[in-house]
């Protein structure tokens, strides 16, 4: 302050991570202007798509390869928005440079698209969820994984004198790059916070799977589940996985049955598949005929060897609705066959399994749908 009064310092530009208040009405520090959500400064916080394209062009003149690299980095490293009115998304600059450093020497993608330098962020994520109220914070995680977003008011400053609530926690995740602005709810005008990309999604799924494995009754099952997922890919054997999953669901049901619905069960399933890192796991993927598959387990782009792949149609029935099982299974069979016959990509897969999975309370009924000759 004294340097400013003396004319030595004209103005100060300060960067940080989260907007903690350090001022008061009578403080000389209350003259700051927060530029975090100013659209004129947003592109300082990452690479634009044009900048990423320019970097790729410096490495390879091959137009086809350029587009392939851009698409892969878009899925894994893009997605950040820091202003509600912004029409563009930004790339994580650290991740882009990590990818291109490998690509520059080998003209192939890194074996692991998740930068090892990000590994410490997983530990940081675990600690973040323990801030103030762990159970309430984990509810945020479940909502994000189930719905793809969570809405809240935008918080521009954290003031711990008034406490730290769930809205603050959602914004806290956003300021640390684990959520980002996806849009605005047209009715409530609240921000829809979303997972920005596959890197952050993978960290969330890893954390969620670990919370399951911390349940005493499930601690010994994680290795068995990993092996069962591998058997699904290598040998087309899926029964073991669903037997183990049924045991997980029964354990969770005994602890808190009020959570049970189709979305909750889907999140539990997907957490194990994603963390096992064997399949490319896709949820609500749009297919050729305009339908959306509940879950696709397909070969990863970087894996050249063919293996077994799966389309899964998932349904949930409460115990009182158990008499509807055969009708629901029949409808699911019809639906999954429709997906298959309308999608050329699915038809081209030589080792594809079409599975109908119906959960009645916490019991799984799994049926493979045979293709007509």
Overall description:
There is one protein chain. Helix 2 (49-59) packs across helix 3 (63-77) and helix 5 crosses helix 8 (198-213). The model has no long low-confidence stretch (mean pLDDT 87). With 373 residues, this protein is an alpha+beta fold. 28% of the residues are buried. It has helices at 2-5, 49-59, 63-77, 93-106, 119-128, 134-147, 166-175, 198-213, 222-235, 239-255, 262-276, 325-342, 344-347; strands at 149-152, 180-184, 191-194, 280-286, 292-298, 309-317, 352-360, 363-368.
Quick structural gist:
By secondary structure, this protein is an alpha+beta fold. It is built from 13 helices and eight strands.
- Strand arrangement, largest sheet? 4-5-6-7-8
Distance between the termini: 82 Å
Largest pleated sheet: 5 strands, mixed
- Reading the helices and strands in chain order gives HHHHHHEHEEHHHHEEEHHEE
Shape category: globular
pLDDT averaged over residues: 87
Number of helices: 13
Low-confidence stretches: none
Strand content: 5-15%
Question: What level of helicity do the residues show?
Answer: 40-55%
Over all CA atoms, what is the radius of gyration?
24 Å
* Number of beta-strand segments: 8
- Sheet/helix structural class: alpha+beta
């Amino acid at each position: 302050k004294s340097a400013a009064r003396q004319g030595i310092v004209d103005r100060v530009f300060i960067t940080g991570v989260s907007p903690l208040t350090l001022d008061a009405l009578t403080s000389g520090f209350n003259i700051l202007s927060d530029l975090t959500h100013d659209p004129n400064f947003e592109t300082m916080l990452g690479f634009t798509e044009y900048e990423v394209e320019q970097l790729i062009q410096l490495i390879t003149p091959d137009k086809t390869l350029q587009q392939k690299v851009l698409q892969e980095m878009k899925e894994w490293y893009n997605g950040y928005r820091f202003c509600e009115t912004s029409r563009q998304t930004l790339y994580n600059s650290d991740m882009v440079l990590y990818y291109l450093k490998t690509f520059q020497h080998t003209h192939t993608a890194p074996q692991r698209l998740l930068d090892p330098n990000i590994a410490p962020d997983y530990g940081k994520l675990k600690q973040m969820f323990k801030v103030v109220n762990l159970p309430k914070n984990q509810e945020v995680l479940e909502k994000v994984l189930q719905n793809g977003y969570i809405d809240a008011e935008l918080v521009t400053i954290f003031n711990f004198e008034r406490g730290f609530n769930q809205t603050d926690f959602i914004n806290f995740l956003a300021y640390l790059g684990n959520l980002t602005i996806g849009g605005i709810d047209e009715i409530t005008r609240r921000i829809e916070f979303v997972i920005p990309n596959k890197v952050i999604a993978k960290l969330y799924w890893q954390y969620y799977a670990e919370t399951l494995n911390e349940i005493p009754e499930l601690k010994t099952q994680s290795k068995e589940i990993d092996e069962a997922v591998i058997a699904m890919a290598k040998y087309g054997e899926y029964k073991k996985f669903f037997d183990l999953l049924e045991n997980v669901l029964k354990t969770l049901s005994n602890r808190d049955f009020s959570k049970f619905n189709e979305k909750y069960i889907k999140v539990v399933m997907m957490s194990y598949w994603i963390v096992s890192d064997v399949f490319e796991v896709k949820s609500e993927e749009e297919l050729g005929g305009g339908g959306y598959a509940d879950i696709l387990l397909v070969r990863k782009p970087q894996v050249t060897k063919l293996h077994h792949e799966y389309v899964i149609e998932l349904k949930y029935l409460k115990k009182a609705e158990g008499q509807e099982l055969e009708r629901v299974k029949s409808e699911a069979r019809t639906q999954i066959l429709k997906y298959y016959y309308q999608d050329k990509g699915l038809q081209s897969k030589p080792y594809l399994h079409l599975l109908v999975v119906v959960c009645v309370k916490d019991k799984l009924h799994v049926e493979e749908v045979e293709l007509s000759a």
